[in-house]
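User: Hi! I have a protein structure encoded as tokens and I'd like to know what sequence might fold into it. I'm fairly new to this, so please keep things simple.
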């Protein structure tokens, strides 16, 4: 149990430092003691204001993991194996604890978070038998009342869904403002925050894709998207393109293949960073505006960088703590 009584700001700061691996040894021990013996009664003093308590719960449960996945530098490989697991368990436990404080008897259960850290993948089976395979650097939030009236999840990253058929309970995936609705089918969604274009690709059956702004009417992006078709949604221009896609390309990451379609060098670098859990930075005066359509096997990183160099003209430097991609010079 924490010896010190934390304010809301202090509690959030300590948890954030612990998750990033920058907490002091004393702070780490305090957090782990608190997690091991957390008590609702003792937390009530620090979170007496219901409004602040709810705001903190939402930020911890919904914000910190997604912020780390999108913005924070990756941890060195030697530290990656236990930190993401401990952090995910800690955040879910903290969210559940904060959620239960002085709540009415009838409430919606807290969402469940599933996190696949950089350099790893994860498979989760939902209560209805639906299976979701998470690519590296992905967060899936499963509604606390999943399956009671509808089946709803929220995605930040990339995942392949195999949805159990249940016409009475529609399955909805929200990724930002994009919503994909299905009854029973299999498909891949790629919606990492740093991407300029998000994709929904159908392996079997059909889906409906909408854009639902926070304030505004929904817009149908595709009323019926069928097998071997992929919808590409440009987040900046809001333009939609539907194109054919082969089964080999669809969710190629599940078979350890990189498959880039109209991808920038920055997007390729971000994918390498997610898959190999090592920071990848771009340097040089060459252009980064090019778009590439390339695919290759997921080999060890040095082989992948050599192949990428042959295909795009970039050069690279492998350092102990990062990879630097030097853009090709233009004349």
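Assistant: Happy to help. Inverse folding works backwards from shape to sequence: for each of the 331 positions I chose a residue that suits the local structure. Here it is:
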């Amino acid at each position: 149990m924490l010896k010190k009584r934390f304010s809301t700001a202090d509690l959030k700061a300590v948890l954030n430092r612990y998750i990033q691996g920058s907490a002091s040894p004393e702070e780490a021990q305090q957090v782990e003691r608190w997690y091991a013996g957390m008590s609702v009664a003792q937390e009530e003093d620090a979170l007496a204001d219901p409004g602040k308590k709810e705001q903190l719960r939402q930020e911890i449960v919904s914000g910190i993991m997604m912020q780390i996945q999108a913005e924070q530098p990756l941890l060195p490989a030697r530290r990656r194996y236990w930190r993401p697991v401990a952090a995910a368990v800690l955040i879910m436990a903290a969210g559940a604890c904060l959620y239960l404080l002085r709540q009415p008897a009838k409430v919606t259960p807290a969402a469940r978070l599933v996190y696949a850290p950089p350099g790893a993948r994860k498979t989760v089976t939902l209560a209805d038998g639906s299976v979701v395979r998470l690519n590296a650097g992905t967060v899936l939030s499963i509604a606390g009342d999943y399956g009671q009236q509808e089946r709803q999840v929220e995605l930040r990253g990339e995942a392949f869904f195999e949805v159990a058929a249940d016409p009475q309970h529609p399955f909805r995936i929200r990724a930002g403002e994009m919503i994909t609705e299905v009854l029973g089918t299999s498909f891949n969604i790629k919606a990492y925050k740093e991407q300029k274009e998000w994709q929904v690709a159908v392996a079997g059956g059909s889906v409906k894709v909408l854009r639902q702004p926070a304030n505004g009417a929904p817009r149908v992006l595709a009323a019926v998207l069928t097998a071997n078709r992929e919808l590409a949604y440009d987040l900046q221009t809001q333009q939609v393109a539907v194109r054919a896609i082969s089964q080999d390309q669809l969710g190629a990451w599940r078979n350890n293949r990189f498959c880039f379609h109209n991808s920038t060098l920055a997007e390729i670098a971000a994918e390498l960073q997610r898959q190999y859990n090592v920071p990848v930075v771009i340097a040089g005066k060459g252009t980064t505006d090019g778009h590439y359509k390339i695919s290759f096997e997921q080999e060890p990183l040095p082989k992948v960088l050599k192949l990428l160099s042959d295909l795009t003209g970039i050069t690279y430097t492998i350092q102990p703590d990062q990879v630097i991609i030097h853009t090709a010079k233009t004349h």
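A useful reference point when you look it over: The first helix runs from residue 8 to 20. Feel free to ask if any position seems puzzling.
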